[in-house]
Amino acid sequence: MADYRKRIVILVIGLVVLVGLAGCGKKGEYSSLSEEERIDKGLDAFEHLKNGKIQIKGHSKYNIKAPKDGQKSEGEVNRSFTGDFETSPEHILGIYDDGKNKFEYYHDAVSEFSKTKSDTEWYNDTDSMKKYRYKQPNGINRVAIEFLRSKKKDIKVTDDKDSYTLHYETDDVKQLGANGDFLVGGSYNGPVFHDDDSDAKVKIDLKISKEEFKPLSIKYTCEQDNSDISLKFKAMVKYSKQNSGVRVKVPRGIDTAKSR
Fold first, then answer.
1. Do 72 and 25 share a structural domain?
2. What's the rounded Cα separation, in Å, for the pair 11 and 21?
3. Helix/strand/coil (H, E, C) string of 175-207?
4. Are 95 and 105 in contact (CB under 8 A)?
């Protein structure tokens, strides 16, 4: 009888241990991570994104305070980019639609090129785009990721069924005036913030899969107001075929492209 009771006790203890282990999750899985570890894993996922396909859709609504002759004071613009990318070496190739025209677009680590359907050759836009050095359709750049690492205490984590989201927002005008170029540059058409803006806001939502910690999307929501313009901007970045071996071929004619 005593042996029977002992076996029952051992069996119950074993079941309790099994239930406890099932609830804990394996080390490294999403369920076993602290909030700070989830933030680190999410930012690492975007930082270590090597190649894939990217789609960016942006919408701007603006009000120009002192329009010039013939210039509309209010308007809305939809822009998009669809293409392939590599980060080592750095290449982006795709189609950019500015709402009026479509361009073939190519960007390497230091230079930017474009070509319309009517163009017979590529043009080098590097000089004209120097002041927008972080304005590239890559979703998010590594400088922005490092900035977000320094702001981990301000990042909130929200759960979905198969994914989670890192949310960061700021309305610090001076901070955005100094860092806004790289912080929203990956959206390609985000605001160019200034120190003398009367109002400025940025919200960034990074979405990551729970199972493989794969970057899924980025949502940008921005506002800007100054003596020249009032602007509201939204963009959605979506990734596919992440780290699947996508390769970008340098287009023919890049080496002889002329500056505009």
1. no
2. 15
3. HHHHHHHHHCHHHCCCCCCCCCCCEEEEEEEEE
4. yes
What residues contact residue 223 under an 8 Å CB cut-off, 6+ apart?
Answer: 199, 200, 201, 231, 232, 233
Cis preceding-peptide flag for 89 (omega within 30 of 0): yes
- pTM, two decimals, is 0.87
Give the torsion through C-alpha atoms of 4, 8, 10, 12, to 10 deg.
Answer: 180
List CB contacts of 108: < 8 A, sequence separation 6 or more: 89, 90, 91, 250
In Å, the largest CA–CA distance within the chain is 101
Other C-beta atoms closer than 10 Å to the C-beta of 83 total 21
Task: Please tell me whether residues 123 and 17 are part of one structural domain.
Answer: no
Instruction: Identify whether residues 24 and 87 lie together within a single domain.
Output: no
Domain that holds residue 141: 33-259
- Helix axis angle for 142-149 and 35-47, nearest 10°, is 170
The total number of residues written for the chain in this structure: 260
Residues 6+ apart with CB under 8 A from 145: 43, 46, 47
- What is the b/e burial string over 147-175, where b = at least 16 CB atoms within 10 angstroms of the residue's CB? ebeeeeeebebeeeeebbbbebebeebeb
Per-residue pLDDT at 17: 44
Q: Which of 141, 164, 144, 151 is nearest to 42 (CA)?
A: 164
Residues 98 and 5 in one domain: no
pLDDT digits (tens, 9 = 90+) for 155-174: 999 999 999 999 999 999 99
